[in-house]
Amino acid sequence: MQPSDGPETLPHSRSRPLHWLGTAAALAAVLGLSVLVQPSAGATAADGRGHRRAAGPAPDAARARYPMRCAPALPGEKTIDELAEGSADFDGDGRTETVALVRCHAGMGTPPSGIFVLAPPGKPGARPRVVETLLPPDQGMSANRFRVTAGSVSATLLGYSTDDVPRCCPDKKRKVTWEWDGTRFLLEPAPVAQRRI
Predict the structure, then answer these.
(1) What is the pTM of this model?
(2) Could you read off the pLDDT of 144-160 as tens digits, one per residue?
(3) 64 touches 127 (CB < 8 A)
């Protein structure tokens, strides 16, 4: 919308109370409709001038190279399994980010999980870039109930109290959320349930 070159000429110079009542009702209807018809999360972003523009395609989690030490894969097998992913335009720059839950491929057992934030590649045809690690695999935890929204990433982390606990059966569990604060993700663990005595 272009600004006008000078003051607008009004079609009338005298307003009546009925006119303002009608204007107020129309404005309320438009505002109410705008609340109901919001763009989907990550679908659009605002540029520096306040205009909306469509977000680009989400990075492909299967094409990324993750900072993980995995055993060499057998012929025909993948080195890394993508367990889950979700996408959103967290920073509002018009480019969609992908958050991926991955782990090393294993024929048996439960390797630790990693959660990584991927940004679009710097040039066409390149791989997505890992720009942040939310859950490093070297912490030895698995994750499930993974969910990505427009402003957060949540999961339930599963871990082990000692090295004697079988790797098949984690005995520790905690829900966590990484909230986007406008510049970075902040980890917010859910409170630990209190044991009744």
Answers:
(1) 0.69
(2) 999 999 999 999 999 99
(3) yes
